[in-house]
Request: fold
Amino acid sequence: MQKFCVLGGGGFIGTNLILRLRDQGADLRAFGHPPTFPETVPGVAWTTGEFDDTEALWRCIDGCDVVYHLMGGSVPGKADADKVGDLRRSVENTVRMLEAARGGGIGKIVFVSSGGTVYGITDRLPIQENMPTDPITAYGVSRLAIEKYLNLYRHQYGIDYTILRVSNPFGEYQTARQGQGLVATLLICAFTGRRFEMWGDGTTIRDYVYVGDVTNALLAAAHPRLPERVFNIGSGTGIDVNEMICLVEAVVGQPITCLRRPSRPVDVPASVLDVSRAGALLGWRPTYAMPDALDRTARWMKAFLAKETARGI
Amino acid sequence: MQKFCVLGGGGFIGTNLILRLRDQGADLRAFGHPPTFPETVPGVAWTTGEFDDTEALWRCIDGCDVVYHLMGGSVPGKADADKVGDLRRSVENTVRMLEAARGGGIGKIVFVSSGGTVYGITDRLPIQENMPTDPITAYGVSRLAIEKYLNLYRHQYGIDYTILRVSNPFGEYQTARQGQGLVATLLICAFTGRRFEMWGDGTTIRDYVYVGDVTNALLAAAHPRLPERVFNIGSGTGIDVNEMICLVEAVVGQPITCLRRPSRPVDVPASVLDVSRAGALLGWRPTYAMPDALDRTARWMKAFLAKETARGI
Reply:
């Protein structure tokens, strides 16, 4: 039976991945900050720890067939505010983990990179995996540096890996508490009447992918020695902020009030991924239609907000 | 009058650059470890310091029109032996410097990157600047990460920069003391009768560029706001180890004895740069013919070894 470990299992994608793996009865461990939703982790061998505690981390991943690396990945804005800290937290700690793995002990690493930031501003859309990577955010640079170190350790020590460059994920367990996730933020605004702060004129285009599709891709990426090592994971479709506001308003049945702010230099104007490589080589494609995915997410958010209200938050 | 600062001015390329700038009567400062050849720096405002001493470094570069970043760049083999240390020394310290430069104070940064390592193993030769960058050495990864941070700070804070991806430089002031530089090592073997340790069968192909050409490129790169930001700097010609042995034997007039060792996984089999972009946009091309460049280098090495012998080293 395959052994899995999820590093950063307490976050948005991690929670979804753990639930899916648990449903499949997988031999499962997790490591990271305390889970945002502790109710999702009973039955999972959970280790609470910091990513820079390489010894504790190694005890957790040693002997695993698949290590999902989702750590240090949640808050792009914070990375820009403290670029040195971001470099240490994400890149340096990854190198420390890879150093520990040099002598063997793990089967492969699946790393969730950022399809929305590693490419920077591109000449063409949709973006293919072999296009230039010139990030304009610290988050994008550190994700890219991790990708390069993974390739280095594969070359020097034979450590297998797969990189998923995930576009803009949304879905259950995304709370928007750290100012992240357009869909989650819009749902909160629609349900609570809070005003939506819009950076720019709402024409910024993103590729929004439902987390159910992301977890499907994560499972597909677990197979050893895939013929390519980097895969875009997205919907393959661009939606701008104004369109998404309309879609969320339609799903919730409530209008959203916008408060306009000047655009930020860290925002790429448009990002849409070409996901044909994942289709051809992982047998993966996005399967949830946008209205269905938004509806699932809205129902989760409604229940989540009701619980928060009941708790007096 | 333009003000220049050379970070890492005490090394091989730094020494050559300082001599050239001094000959031109430039307003010149330098920062770094104590110079290998102190006789080259009188008349230069020299600050001895560590690259992680951001305050001392900033005092040195504040107000400069052109900052040459040549630090942390000399010993690829050491980077692989201590990847975390290399990441800190080269990438993290560069980010600290860029943080200090956010508010202005310097005109532009010229960074010496590594044309021989940032590309990794390529499909085609010669290598063009827009080809994939998948280094197989830690040194290549950290050079590439610095390139990406430079681009980030340009985007976010308008800090101008130019990157020179220099191939395998050789010439005066390369001592091979840290096991680096094929030409310098072969010259020492030819002059002293020491055996040459050859890794692999001698068919590894490199693009050897004379340091006089490299300093020409560094001067050309000082111009502000060039239309491209990354330039290959090399001879554009591939030479394998066996050929170079013959060339050096011919220049010195002495045979070299080889001691064969197994090849190392960190060696890219072949690296030759396409330097046409630098020709078109910097007006730069390699001007020294190989026999002439080797002859100049051999004369310097002979004098250097004679001085070492006189000193009893």
